[in-house]
Amino acid sequence: MSTEKHLPEIASRLLDLHDQVDSSYLFPTPEPKARALIKQNPFAFCAAVCLDRGTKADIIWTIPYWIQQRVGHFDPKCFYQLSFEEISQLFEALPKKPRYTNAAPITFQDITRIVVEQFSGDAEAIWRNRNAAEVRETFLSVYGVGRGIANLALILIESAYGFTFSDLDHTQMDIKPDVHTTLVLYRLGVAPRIDQSDAIQAARMLNPSYPAKVDAALWYIGREFCRPSNPDCSNCRMHDICPRVGIIEGHLWS
Fold it and tell me: What is the pLDDT of residue 222?
C-alpha cells in the first residue's frame, strides 16, 4: 500500500476526529471533580501540564485535585507563601506520585513563582492577549519543561479554554511527540521511525497550516486502538488505509 497516496485521506480523517474528541478526554482522570478543577482553574491546568512527564496522564491531571483536597484551595498566591519543604511535603503526601519525585516540587514552585511574580497570580494571563511564541517561552522557562510539554500546553489551552491563537501562530505550533503520537504516525507510514523529531516533521507534512491540530486525534487513536501490543485495528478509523493492518491479531508490533 502506498502511504504517500493516502496522506491527504490520513490528514482529513485526523482533522475530522480532532473535531469529535471532547476536550474532557484530553484530561483523563477517574475523578470528575479533578477534571472540573482543571477546566475552571487555569493555575491547576498550568501546574498539571508542567508536571506531565514520565507519568500516566490519569495521575498527572488528578494531582491538583488531590492537593486541593488536602489544603482546601488551589490558589497560587497561597502556595507562593510556602517554603520548598512545605511544597515537598504536599507531593510526598499524594496518593499517587509523579515519576520525578524530586523534580516535581521544584517545577510546582517554579510555575507558582512565575504566575505570581510575572502575572499577579492570574494564570490565564499567561496566554491572554499573547502570541503562541510568548506563551511557549513562558512554559519553557519553568523548571523541567521541555519543548514537548510547552507544545502540549498550547494545544490544550485552545481545547480547554476556548482561546484561539492566530493562523500565523498555528503554523508554528507542533504536536507533543509522546509514546502515542510517535507510534501512530510510524504505523501509518507517515513517519519513518518511532522518533520524536520524525513525528514532528510528519505532523507538519500532514497539516502544514496547523501541525498541532492532528495531536488530539493521534493521541486518541494511540490510547484507544493503536496500542504497542494487541492493537485494536478492526475498530480504528484508519483501518482501511493503514499499511500495517493485516498482521495476525495479537502480534507484538514494532
Answer: 95
What phi and psi, each to the nearest 5 degrees, are found at residue 19?
-75, -15
CB atoms within 10 A of CB 46: 28
Q: Taking the CB of residue 72, how many other CB atoms lie within 10 A of it?
A: 9
- The answer to whether residue 185 sits within a structural domain is yes
As separate numbers, helices (DSSP H) first and strands (DSSP E) second, the chain gives 14, 0
User: Does 86 lie in the same domain as 119?
Assistant: yes
Distance, in Å, from the CA atom of 231 to the CA atom of 253, rounded to the nearest integer, reads: 8
**DSSP notation for 123-153:** GGGGTTT--HHHHHHHHHTSTT--HHHHHHH
- The whole-angstrom separation of Cα 154 and Cα 132 is 7
What cell was used for 4?
A: 504517500
Cβ atoms of residues 150 and 136 within 8 Å: yes
The verdict on 35 and 85 lying in the same domain is yes
**pLDDT value at position 252?**
44
Q: What is the domain extent for residue 134?
A: 31-170
Strands (DSSP E) found in the chain: none
Q: What is the pTM of this model?
A: 0.85
Domain for residue 15, yes or no?
yes
Distances from the Cα of 113 to the Cα of 16, 24, 79, 92, angstroms: 39, 28, 9, 20
- Phi then psi for residue 28, to 5 deg, are -75, 100
pLDDT category, 249, cuts 50, 70, 90? very low
The CA dihedral of 220, 226, 227, 229, to the nearest 10 degrees, is 170
